[in-house]
Amino acid sequence: MSEQAKHVLFLCTGNSARSIMGEALLNARSKNRAFIGHSAGSHPAGQVNPLTIELLQKSRVSTDGLRSKNWDEFARPDSPKLDFVFTVCDSAAGETCPLWPGQPVTAHWGVEDPAAVEGDDDTKRKAFLRAFTTLQRRLDFFLALPLDKIDGLALKQRLDSIGKS
What we know:
Blueprint: E1 6-12, H1 18-29, E2 35-41, H2 50-58, E3 84-87, H3 90-94, E4 105-108, H4 121-144, H5 152-162
Parallel strand pairs: 1-2, 1-3, 3-4
């Protein structure tokens, strides 16, 4: 892999839970791999879900700079060149995305929406933990890939298979 950082965008509709977790987890886990995580939503909630912040902090994952943002921020000419775009919710996967600078490799890593779970606080926290654990496991698989040895089509297939694990 080259010395230049690889930019990874996690997409969801609301950008308040799953995509935020993906961004924060990747940035925490990839310090020596030179990845930079970002997140955005097609219809951002405008704030990060408090249970997302709570879980990240309990897991000792930095929440500095996390905010709910529109995916248009990453389609501008001055945006970082994206290497990978992962949709983490089924609605965002079905939407027409902007054109991303850099022709990134895309994959769908659908994760159940913890923010949509109803019930008491314990039930909600368990849903957030399930989403967090799923994303954490998928990112471990992603970070273990020998990216400099896999060609485009094989890489796309590997990334798609990670989303099904």
